[in-house]
């Protein structure tokens, strides 16, 4: 868990537990809590299955682009990447509550990354201080010198990319996952706090005559391999939540006591709510005015990334999820348990969740405005009062939301610190 996350949770007293719910233990049955625990696993299965399917669609789109690179097929691949982010970002609500997810997440969503490890960068590029991989440029070099070691990179394959991910223990050495793919599709965003995303040309992938920035065949190999790895990793996680597979994580989780599972649910949504989304992803960028700390920095998709994190939190509390095909999965929820114990607390929590989603909608509306759009990297510029207001309102809503989550847990006698994590 990041230090900032621990600090914020400690300050808020999120882990603090008060015994205010004796009546709840009389009103809520074991069948009620078991139904909510099962619905939790059903939500995870649906969301990760959607992430896998959209990852496969991204792979199809990228393969089509690489087969015949042109501007239209590049845009199609970029749009497929954005679609693939929708389900995945909603899945992050399971991250902090489940070690199988937290241990795996780094393969798919590590950021920010040192672009110079992967491909060409602008002349004024600065890599992370002391990073041994910041200038390796895998695409340009068939052998990589790392201290006294030489790595054969003649063939860009899964083994090579896996072995170089987080090279030297540096989180900036990202070779796999959504953001490596994002960089390969968009390139660096060199616009600073001005409007505009990365401008990688489709000609970076033309084989032979017409290739720009050299090494087009190796760049295509990298994009093809890293996308296949993403699909492989997503398949692994969807299988972890399938009721059809014995001895997977779902079976392990459901073998636990219901109060432990509920504690993990509350711990997960509280951790993502303030420590990660509010702290690591918004507050850090805003206070440092740092485009390097922007989540989807190459594509300028950060506003949607944050929106779907918020929606994932609301989904889990309400026990529902709208799938990418438009169908809605609903079932027993934390909300239904809290409503039995203390309707006022449940109402307050739902209102807090709605307030956050309203604030996040202001963010997406500003970023997607037809006239004078304001993307996240523009909002965090020093002196941008309107951007600061939008993001500060989100942070305020996340603080209130996290306090409400704490009260909801207390209302049904659940101590998030009893999650066993």
UniProtKB/TrEMBL annotation:
InterPro entries: Imelysin-like. Coiled coil: none annotated. Keywords: Signal. Residues 1-23 form the signal peptide. Pfam families: Peptidase_M75 (PF09375). Residues 44-404 form the Imelysin-like domain. This is Peptidase. It comes from Zhongshania aquimaris.
């Amino acid at each position: 868990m990041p230090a900032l996350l621990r600090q914020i949770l400690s300050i808020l007293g999120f882990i603090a537990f008060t015994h205010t719910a004796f009546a709840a233990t009389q009103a809520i049955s074991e069948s009620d809590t078991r139904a909510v625990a099962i619905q939790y696993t059903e939500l995870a299965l649906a969301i990760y299955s959607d992430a896998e399917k959209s990852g496969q669609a991204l792979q199809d789109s990228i393969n089509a682009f690489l087969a015949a690179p042109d501007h239209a097929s590049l845009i199609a691949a970029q749009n497929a990447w954005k679609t693939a982010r929708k389900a995945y970002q909603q899945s992050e609500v399971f991250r902090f509550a489940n070690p199988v997810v937290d241990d795996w997440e780094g393969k798919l969503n590590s950021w920010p990354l040192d672009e110079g490890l992967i491909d060409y960068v602008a002349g004024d590029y600065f890599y992370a201080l002391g990073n041994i991989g910041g200038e390796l440029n895998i695409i340009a070099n068939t052998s990589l010198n790392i201290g006294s070691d030489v790595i054969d990179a003649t063939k860009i394959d899964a083994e090579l990319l896996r072995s170089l991910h987080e090279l030297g223990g540096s989180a900036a050495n990202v070779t796999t996952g959504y953001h490596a793919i994002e960089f390969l599709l968009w390139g660096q965003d060199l616009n600073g706090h001005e409007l505009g995303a990365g401008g990688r040309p489709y000609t970076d992938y033309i084989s032979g005559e017409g290739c720009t920035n050299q090494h087009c065949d190796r760049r295509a190999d990298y994009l093809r391999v890293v996308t296949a790895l993403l699909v492989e990793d997503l398949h692994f996680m969807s299988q972890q939540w399938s009721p059809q597979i014995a001895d997977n994580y779902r079976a392990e989780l459901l073998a636990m006591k219901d109060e432990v599972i509920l504690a993990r649910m509350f711990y997960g949504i509280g951790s993502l709510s303030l420590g990660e989304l509010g702290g690591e992803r918004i507050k850090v960028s805003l206070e440092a005015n740092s485009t390097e700390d922007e989540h989807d920095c190459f594509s300028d998709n950060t506003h949607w990334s944050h929106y779907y994190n918020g929606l994932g939190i609301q989904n889990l509390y309400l026990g529902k999820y709208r799938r990418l095909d438009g169908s809605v999965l609903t079932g027993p929820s934390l909300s239904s348990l809290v409503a039995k114990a203390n309707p006022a607390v449940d109402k307050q929590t739902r209102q807090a969740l709605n307030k956050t989603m309203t604030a996040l909608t202001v963010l997406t509306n500003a970023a997607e405005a037809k006239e004078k759009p304001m993307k996240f990297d523009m909002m965090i510029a020093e002196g941008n009062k309107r951007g600061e207001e939008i993001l500060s309102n989100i942070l305020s809503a996340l603080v209130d939301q996290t306090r409400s989550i704490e009260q909801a847990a207390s209302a049904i006698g659940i101590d998030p610190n009893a999650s066993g994590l």
